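User: Design a sequence. Structure:
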């Protein structure tokens, strides 16, 4: 049996130290979360860096963010999303303009010509526009396909009568969509999980899904 178990060591170190510092925090009547933050900020690193893999610790933290944002998405409807479009669209246009002007200003501070500065600023704008396009494509896919497919899958699994399989399906939807959004569209794991939860909310089984997520 192999003895090199970085994942287990990371989980043990993280939870063990969180328990110790959380208990101390509780003793002084402060939230345990404060103790966990003290563990993170203490001299010597996070989560027992001598025995834990920091890269794995970061990924485990991302896993927590995925589940958190999935739960948040379960409490948002499409109407909630559409209600902020009047702010989001002008905000995106403003970001593009600011990126161009910042690129121009930075280049002029470095002694570049106005023409070169505009090219540099437009390059930054191009990156931002590409990112926004990818996010828009992901959102469109979720609205067209995910809105129908995710509730259908959940209904199909619910009819099997297996609570364990239902719970597994909810977690699989959250994790797979978050991971796929990142790999295919460059969208953050958090945003992917949020939209997964929001699409699942379209199903009458969303309340049960929220309970299973907890």
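Assistant: Done.
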């Amino acid at each position: 049996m192999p003895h090199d178990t970085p994942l287990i060591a990371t989980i043990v170190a993280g939870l063990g130290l969180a328990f110790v510092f959380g208990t101390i925090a509780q003793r002084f009547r402060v939230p345990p979360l404060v103790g966990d933050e003290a563990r993170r900020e203490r001299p010597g690193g996070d989560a027992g860096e001598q025995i834990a893999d920091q890269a794995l610790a970061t990924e485990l933290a991302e896993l927590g963010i995925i589940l958190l944002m999935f739960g948040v998405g379960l409490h948002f409807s499409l109407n909630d999303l559409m209600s902020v479009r009047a702010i989001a669209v002008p905000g995106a246009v403003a970001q593009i303009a600011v990126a161009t002007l910042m690129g121009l200003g930075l280049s002029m501070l470095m002694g570049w010509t106005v023409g070169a500065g505009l090219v540099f600023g437009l390059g930054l704008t191009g990156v931002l526009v590409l990112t926004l396009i990818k996010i828009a494509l992901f959102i469109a896919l979720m609205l067209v396909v995910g809105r129908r497919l995710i509730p259908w899958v959940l209904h199909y699994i619910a009819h099997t009568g297996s609570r364990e399989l239902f719970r597994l399906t909810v977690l699989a939807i959250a994790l797979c969509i978050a991971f796929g959004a990142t790999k295919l569209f460059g969208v953050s794991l958090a945003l992917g999980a949020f939209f997964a939860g929001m699409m699942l909310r379209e199903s009458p089984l969303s309340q049960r899904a929220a309970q299973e997520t907890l």
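Residues 42-49 have pLDDT under 50 and may be disordered. The two ends are 34 Å apart (CA to CA).
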